[in-house]
Amino acid sequence: MVDSSAVFQELEKMGRDGLKGSELIDLRGTGGLTYNDFLILPGFINFSADNVSLETKLTRNITLKTPFASSPMDTVTESEMAITLALLGGIGILHNNCTADEQAAMVRRVKKFENGFITDPIVLSPTHKIRDVMDIKKRLGFTGIPITEDGKAGGKLVGIVTNRDIGFMADLDAELATVMTKDVVTAKHGVTLGEANRILRESKKGKLPIVDASGNLVSLVARSDLLKNRDYPWASKHPQTKQLLVGAAIGTRPADRERLAKLVDAGLDVVVIDSSQGNSSFQIDMIKHIKDTYGAQIDVLAGNVVTRDQAANLIAAGADGLRIGMGSGSICITQEVMAVGRPQATGVFQVSQFARKFGIPTVADGGISNVGHVAKALALGASCVMMGSLLAGTSEAPGEYFFLDGKRLKKYRGMGSLDAMERNDSDNSGSQARYFSESDTVKVAQGVTGAVVDKGSIKQFIPYLITGLQHSLQDMGVPHLHNLWDMVVAGDVRFERRSAAAQIEGGVHDLFSFEKRLYK
Q1: Using CA atoms in the order 130, 134, 135, 138, what is the torsion angle rounded to 10 degrees?
Q2: Which of 91, 115, 289, 459 is 20 to 30 Å from 180 by CA-CA measure?
């Protein structure tokens, strides 16, 4: 028997438990792995879970407080999802299964939702009608509109119209000059954002126009943004404009270049080139076009890829990030129908390991069914995860709820489903472009249409994912997310494959019945 004082020497002789990441992904020994095929072994805890930072990179130039992105699917991400997810520290990627103008309008709704100094405020003139204000409220969701002499930003400020001014007005054709508030609290151009917020608090007004020495409107600060800053401290915002970050998907057709121009004009931060198989001359040409046309104005998240060979072409073309996954989503049947793809855990590790050599972040897209899968994807090298089915069924996802067999459900479909492909004509079908199907006489489905159970609001669901991920990293002995990959490479985070029987053992078993409540 060895004396306990020599325990660490004995441990060193025997070697550490488990496998390194490079030993886990053994292509010749075990083939491709999914997230369920392995576990991460526990590490040493000397910190509390609530101190774990989840800050990470989405792309080369965009940093998020949480590693969560929503998938650009027409049953997952429109403006409401993008706004709420950005407030919670992630980012929404708007789908493109719509016209370019509709997609650009979604970008504008996100960008107008929260600002620091609003440098391009919506402005009306005294001769505009109340119905013009009501139309803005319907389209963009707010009132509180500055009135200038010429109805343009930069014009002389003469008043402001708020909901209190028009709330009980029956005559929608009345001119704003008859209802606007003329005694307006303002601040001088050059005021700091902190000072502007102090004036808002003390004046108890909803909007604070910023004017120059001649009384011309320069910008605007909103009280609602002050409240959002308090309620959502992790919100994903542009460092200069303080607007919420938002991404949008495009294809690789010539018409998508015109679509992108409208999206950039609306304030887009990151463009996702949406293709089921991203290793194509079409995508390479699109990346080069974006970089030549917009330079550093916008980041490019390219993909999808699952191999190093695919990744190399897109990195060489100028991609700022890579999206990993092919056929692993819950509604995707690409691997079954096309016989092409890769198990997701293997794809994430192989591509991320390669991309990180060049400073390119990766996004694990597909196969994420629970918070444990999120942790595994990040441990395999991904910087963020992209979620579809996890967010479908929430109140922020597009679509109406319906009941079936006593369950409250919402429609969820793959972008490769015939249902999604038939939503629009080929010029406006991001679904058809994603699978190179625009010119096909016979459409071959690579996805299905289904339904998911109501999950409530992501305002409760995302905090559950955040807390769960913090505790997962704590169990691994990883103090912060940005430390995770370095600890994997160093062999400090260890892995173990598990058999089919081990997977059963690791889940709920041997109960007559149970209730699985994940969060409160």
Answers
A1: 180
A2: 115
Strands 495-497 and 38-40: antiparallel
In sequence order, what are the residues at sequence separation of 6 or more whose Cβ sits closer than 8 angstroms to the Cβ of residue 515? none
Q: In 356-457, where does DSSP find H-type helix?
A: 371-379, 418-421, 430-434
Rg (CA), the chain: 26
Collapse the DSSP code of 307 into the 3-class scheme (helix H, G, I; strand E, B; otherwise coil) and give the result: coil
Instruction: Give Cα separations from 129 to 153, 154, 165, 166, 177 (angstroms).
Output: 18, 20, 13, 11, 9
Give the active site residues.
Answer: 332, 434
pTM for this entry: 0.78
CA pair distance 470, 453, nearest whole angstrom: 26
Please report, to the nearest 10 degrees, the dihedral formed by the alpha carbons of residues 446, 393, 232, 298 taken in order: 20
The pLDDT tens digits for 477-514 are 999 999 999 999 999 999 999 988 888 888 877 777 66
Q: Dump pLDDT digits (tens) for 108-134.
A: 989 987 666 777 788 898 889 888 888
116-145 as b/e: b if 16+ CB within 10 A: bbbeebbbbbbebebebbeebeeeeebbbb
Instruction: Identify the residue whose tokens are 């009608």.
Output: 129
